Structures are given as C-alpha cells and as structure tokens.
Amino acid sequence: MSQNNRLVWNEVAPQGAKALFGIHHYITTGTNLPHELIHLVFLRVSQINGCAHCIDRHTRDLLKTMPFEKVALVPVSAEVPHLFSDQYRAALAWAEEVTLVSETHASDEAYAAASAAFTPKDLVDLTIAIAAMNAFNRLGAPFRLPVAAKA
Length: 151
Fold this sequence. Notes:
Helix content: 55-70%
Order of helices and strands: HHHHHHHHH
Structural class: mainly alpha
Distance between the termini: 23 Å
Oligomer: single chain
C-alpha cells in the first residue's frame, strides 16, 4: 500500500507496468516526435483527465525547455495561437480530440488538421503517445500516485 492507502499499481502488476513503460520508451526514443511536443501532449492529456501526478511531472519536464508563461497557457492554447507553432497547436487539438473521443468521435475536421501537420508515421506515433498517456492517467489518478510538489 502507498502512503494514501491505495495500491502501488506498478508494484502489484510489474509485468503490466513493464508493458506500458515499453510503449512510453518507444514514444520517447523510437519516434521522430520532438521531446518537447511529447511532453506538451502528455501534459494536456493529463490536464483533461485530472491526473495530479502526471500534471506535476510533465509540467516539470516542459519547464526545462519552455517558459512558465507558455506552460501555464497550455489548456487555452487555441486562444493564444501566437505562442504555439502550427504543429504544436495541431498536436494539442488532436490530443484533446482523442482523449475526449467519446464526445468528439475523432472528427473529420480534427483528423484533417492533424494530418496536415504530421507525416502519416508521426500522426500514428502521436496518437500512440496520446493513448499511452490516457492509460497512465487511468492508473495514476485512481491509485493517487504522489506528486513532487511541496506545500
């Protein structure tokens, strides 16, 4: 049990954790996606899903390469298009579309925009990244993984 009386999922199911971390490893080392873009998408997916651990972690990752003011505006990136490249905006929009697929049904408009911004392989890799972060969030939030943030 963890400090919050919830299971530590990766200790209880190490083979499942190994499989999921294998996907993460592929995303971060086996694709042509820029690392900053990966963490940007990971952060946005985690914000939508409300996973405190992942929000904390990927905010910290982004702050290594992106100014705080920009990171703070990720949830409203469509309102500040001058701060994010066309490709970053397309990735964020696709991340929202795929994460909220039960509502959006991955619309043709969103798919067309994402397809225009990424090569076919990069779009598939981006979608794998989004799917993987959704999976991590669905473990991190229910099992209340800890955050590094201090009071």
